[in-house]
Design goal:
Two copies of one chain form a homodimer. With about 450 residues, chain A is an alpha+beta fold. Chain A contains 14 helices and 18 strands. Chain A is globular and about 80 Å long. The model of chain A has no long low-confidence stretch (mean pLDDT about 95).
Chain lengths: ~450, ~450
Amino acid sequence: MAVQREAALTYVRSHREAFLDTLKTFLRFPSISTSEQHRADMEATARWLADYLRSLGMARVNIYPTDGHPVVYGELTTDRAGAPTVLVYGHYDVQPPDPLDLWASPPFEPTVREDRLYARGAADMKGQIIGVLAAVEALLRTGDLPVNLKFMFEGEEEIGSPHLAGFIARHKEMLQCDVSLNADAGIMGEDAPSITYALRGLAYFELHVQGPAQDLHSGVYGGVVHNAAQALAELIATMHDAEGHITVDGFYDQVRPLDEEERAALRRLPMDEAFYLEHTGAPALWGEPEYTPVERVGARPTLEINGIIGGFTDPGVKTVIPSHASAKISCRLVPDQDPETIYQCLRRHLETHAPPTIRWELKYIVGAKPAIIDRKSRWVRALSQAMESIWGKEPFYKREGGTVPVVAQVKDILGVDSVMAGFILPDADLHAPNENLHLPTWYRGIETYVHYLCNLA
Amino acid sequence: MAVQREAALTYVRSHREAFLDTLKTFLRFPSISTSEQHRADMEATARWLADYLRSLGMARVNIYPTDGHPVVYGELTTDRAGAPTVLVYGHYDVQPPDPLDLWASPPFEPTVREDRLYARGAADMKGQIIGVLAAVEALLRTGDLPVNLKFMFEGEEEIGSPHLAGFIARHKEMLQCDVSLNADAGIMGEDAPSITYALRGLAYFELHVQGPAQDLHSGVYGGVVHNAAQALAELIATMHDAEGHITVDGFYDQVRPLDEEERAALRRLPMDEAFYLEHTGAPALWGEPEYTPVERVGARPTLEINGIIGGFTDPGVKTVIPSHASAKISCRLVPDQDPETIYQCLRRHLETHAPPTIRWELKYIVGAKPAIIDRKSRWVRALSQAMESIWGKEPFYKREGGTVPVVAQVKDILGVDSVMAGFILPDADLHAPNENLHLPTWYRGIETYVHYLCNLA
C-alpha cells in the first residue's frame, strides 16, 4: 500500500497539466441549471462527464434522467477483500454568471492568471470533481484501488437538488455504501486545512405584492393607493431588527443552542472581523452582535433578500406607481430547523404585518434540511490524517454556512454519514464574478484524495 | 364670427375620419423620449409633425434642436386687428410602453375597439395635439383665424422637460404671447367637463445602496454583511408612516395649506372613495387619512417608489447576497414646494437613517415646480363658456395631480398664464398598458377648441 501510495503521488505530480486541461474542457460547458435556455448545455455536460468516467475504466456508467437535469453515475470495484465502499458525490451544474460585466475574463472561457484558474464552476465544483477523479486515475494507473468507489454526479445542486432525493430512493440498492465522500467543500485557507462537520439548510421563497390592478400614473393617482414596491420594502423591513436579529415570530424556536465547548472550539478559528471585512469589502460587518462572525455564518440562521424587482427599472425616468413587486427571499437554516416550519412562520408573519391596502402571495420554491456529521468516526479521522500528510499539521474543524442538500438526503435514505472533503478557498468568489480555483491548493487536494483513499483501506 | 363658428363646427363633424387617420399616423411613431434607442424615432416624429404643420399653411415652421430632443415650432397670423396671440403647447413624446405583455393590441399599432382608440400616446398627448390642430384646420378652411396662434411642441415632457426652459429663454421674442393654451390636460368624465387650475410639481431621484464590494454567496457570508436589497428596503420603509404620511423631516414645510373655501369646492367634485377604488383596482385606498382622496391626488405631495431592483431577478433560484440595489424615487410637489429643497430634505433623511453597514448615493435626476393658475381671468372664462356650449353645463374646477413643467416655465420666462385645455378621461390608462382615447369625447374636444378660439377673439 505504501509503495502504491508513493507511486500514485508521483503520478499526480507528473500529470498536473493533463488534469488542468481536462478541467478546462469541463468548465467550457455553460451548465447553468436554473436557466431553461441552457437545457441542451446541461445534457452535453452530462454526456461529456459520462464519457470521461468511461475513459477511466468505470463500470455501469449511465446518464439517469430525472424530472429535472440528469444524474451521471459510474463505479469501480477493488479486488481487495473486505474493502469499504465509498460513494463520491459531486454536481456538474453551476450558478448563473451574471453580472457579466464584472468578469475580467469570460465566465465560460477558463483563464489562468498568476496561480489561479478563473471560470464559473472552477471552484464550485467542477474543480473538485476533476480533483477526485485525478486521484482515482493515479491509483488505477499505479495498481489496484484501495476501496470500492461509486460516483454520483447531479445537475441540480445550485437550484436546491429538487430531484436527487427521488433518484437516491429509486436507486437505493445501486448506491449502497459505507460512507459518502462529498467533494463540495472547502478549507479555511491555503495553509489552513479544515474539515467541515456541519452544513446549513435552505428555505427559498418568492414574495409577490400586488397593489393597484395595474401600473398607474403617479400624478393622477399618487396619494390614494399603496405603491407595490413601497409596500414590499415595508414588509421586508419588518423581518429584521436594527441589530440584525430576524423578527419573524417562531423563526429561532428550533435552533439547537451552541454549547460552550463548541463555541470555544469555534473561537479558535482564525477568521475574525478583519478577515470578514477584507473578504466581503463591506464598510462594516452586520448581524447578531451576541455571536461572533464565525458563529453567524456557520451556526446561526439567516434571512436574505436574494433579489428584488418592481416598477420601472430601465435607465431613464418613468413616473409610475408599480402595481406589482416581488422579492426572492431565502433562509439559511441550522440544526434542528426545518424548511417547511420556517415557511409557515414567514406566512404567519406576513398575515400579521401585511396591510389591507395590498394583496400578497408567498411561494415556497425549494428547501433543504441542515446537517451535522459525527466528527469522531473513522471516515473523518482518515481525512484528518490525509491532510496532516500533505500540510504537516492537524486540520481545523468548522461549520460550513452553505447548503449541500444531498448530505441530509444520503443520511435519510442510505443511512450513511458524509465526509466533506473539498479544497475550495474562502476567496474563490463562489456564485460571484471572477470565481476562481487556486491551483497550488488544487494540486495539494488531489494528493490529499490519494492519501485519503489509501487511509480508508 | 357666429357664421364662421357654425361653418367650422360643421367642417369638424364631416372630417372626423380624416382627423382620426392623421392621429393614427402620428401614433405609429414610437417616440419614447427616455430611451436612447428611440432617438431616430424621435427625430422622425418631429419631422412628420413639422411637415403636418406646413401642410396646414403655417409660417416659420422649424425643428429646433436642443441638447435633448428637438422642439417643433410653427405659427399662424390673423388679419383681425388687435387679436390676442395664443401659444399652443404640446409634447410629441410618450412614456415607455412596458410591460408589453399586458397590452391587448401592440402599443404602436393604434387600434379602435368599440368607441376607443388604443395606443401609447393616444391620450397623453398626441390625441390632444391633433385635436387642437383639427380645430385650427376647420377655422382656416372656413374663413380667417379669430386669434394669432403659435405652436410649440416639445419632445421631452415625459422625462421632465429638461431642455424646454432653455429653449423658451433663447426664443423669448418669437414666443411672445398673451396666454398659453396647454393641451396636456383632462376632464373629469365623459359628461363632466372640468378646468384644471393647479398642477403638481416633480422631484425625481435615484437612490443607490452598496453593501459588500461584490455579490456574495449567501451560504458563505450570510449573517455578517448587510444585504444591499434588504438595506434599501429598510431605508424606503423609513420614508412613510403606517398611515401614509411622509416622514422625511421638513418635507411638508413649504406646503401651502388648503383654505376652507377651496376644500369645500373640492368636496363638491364627484370623485369619492368608490371612484378611486374602481379606477385603481386597489384592494383598499391608502394615504393621509385627514385628507379626502381628491385632496390627496391634487393638493397634497407624495413620495413614490417608481422602480426598485437588486440582486437576482431572473426566473429560478440564486442564493446571492446582492452587493448593490437601487430605487427610482419621485415626489409630486404642491405649491409652494421646491424640488431642490425636497432633494436636500431627502439627503438629510438618508444621512440620519442609513446605517454604517452600507454606502449610499442619492442622485437628483430632474425637477419641476408646481403651479397654480388664476381662474378668474378672461382666458379661463372663454374656455368655461366653450365647454358650456358643448356640454350644456358649467365645468368643474379642479387641481391636477400630474406635472406639466412648461406651465411654471412659461409663467417664469414669458410672464403669461397657461390655460389647461385638454380632454383626457380619467380611465385613459395614462403611462400604463392599454392607454386609450375615448373618441366621442375627443370629437367634443375638437368642437370645444373651435368655440374657445372664437370666444378669445
